[in-house]
Specification:
2 copies of one chain form a homodimer. With 195 residues, chain A is an alpha+beta fold. The first copy, chain A, contains 4 helices and 11 strands; from the N terminus they run αααββββαβββββββ. Strand 5 of chain A pairs parallel with strand 3 of chain B, so a sheet runs across the interface.
Chain lengths: 195, 195
DNA sequence: TAAAATAGTGAACATTTGTTCACTTTTCAA
DNA sequence: TTGAAAAGTGAACAAATGTTCACTATTTTA
């Protein structure tokens, strides 16, 4: 059997369960009649960098997770169908540096479209102290989240939209206000109900 | 020990290795002196939905992976620091529906800024046959990737930018052209070198 | 402070797992 | 077509794993 199709089956199993199969389970997943077949397959996949071993356990390797990633455009680049991308990128790992202090917030409104943040987008927000002037931040104003660019001017903090139809807000003029965090990334999905 | 902090340790272990620790390994990870302590902890976490069990194996549960997700803005919503989000969202799973036929491409140029796709963004591209009029697509023109809106007019296919400074392209006028796939999502990371 | 509930311990044991080996079958190249 | 290389088989076994139990320590609550 082709190694690429076996790899896809392991990836699919891992996506579904969050773990790799044991050698016994590989019989079912890959159609083997023997446990040891799985064992030898894993050896091969370790060589390719798809899997790793660590004290009797099988772990995903660097080429196992993530998606094929085309970094830049080379002149005369062949169709991606023909040639495999050599790099893989995991969106989760790419977008989130500090998973312990990161939250996701769905954006309402169009006040930041000029900065490429559209209604329904999900912003990746790091809840770490220092927000600097020019950072895109999420502020909590009167219990509502709002995404704006933070501007520090004359010692005061302002929230600046990226859409001429909206006004600049004076953060401290709100009786109840706080900075939720700094926007470190944006994720958008097309073809979704935007309710 | 607080369950929340134990959970973070397991999450962190899982992020690093791609697998959950065995009960023996939990002694090291969680500071237990006994294997069975880990066993009872897992029981508790199964109740909370953080973990699952399936034939002698521990699997991540629905509340284990992903990030806290604030779906919508409720009036009088408390600070996220005070109240835990009840929902978790995995960016990978959210952004990618068909992992087997999806690739990532880094965007060059600013021809789609009007649609919220900026230079350096990563587009999530599904390499499945049918692209319809109005879809944002990636086309391969003379070996270069380009992101545009596909328009079908009078039986011909055009590539329409979302930036007035760029012209509409006639797809079939290029000697070598092909549709790479349909853009199903966008991921952007701030604070990155954009070379 | 005392009682009750929760969390952690350490030994024991059956199962399952990873791993090896000699062997057979299949695939591929000469 | 034949021979060599690669892939898969099935039995065997040691080591690691999950699981239970009776017990102790710690934390919580009344």
């Amino acid at each position: 059997m082709l190694i690429q199709s076996q790899l896809e089956k392991l990836r699919s199993y891992y996506r579904k369960t969050g773990t790799l199969p044991t050698y016994a389970e590989m019989q079912e997943v890959l159609g083997y009649k023997s446990k040891s077949s799985g064992y030898y397959l894993v050896n091969k996949m370790v060589q390719y960098g798809f899997l790793r071993r660590k004290n009797h356990k099988i772990l995903p390797g660097r080429n196992f997770t993530g998606l094929p990633y085309y970094q830049s455009v080379k002149a005369g680049f062949p169709s991606p169908a023909e040639e495999e991308a050599n790099d893989r990128l995991s969106l989760d790992k790419f977008l989130v540096d500090k998973p312990n202090s990161t939250i996701l917030i769905r954006v309402k409104g169009d006040s930041m479209t000029g900065a490429g943040i559209m209604e329904g987008d999900i912003v990746i927000v790091e809840r770490t102290g220092g927000a600097g002037s020019g950072d895109i931040v999420v502020a909590n104003l009167e219990g509502e989240f709002t995404v704006k660019t933070l501007i520090r001017k004359n010692g005061r903090l302002y929230l600046e939209p990226a859409n001429a139809n909206y006004p600049v807000l004076d953060l401290e003029s709100f009786p109840s206000h706080s900075l939720v965090g700094v926007v470190k990334g944006v994720a958008r999905k097309y073809g979704l109900q935007r309710a």
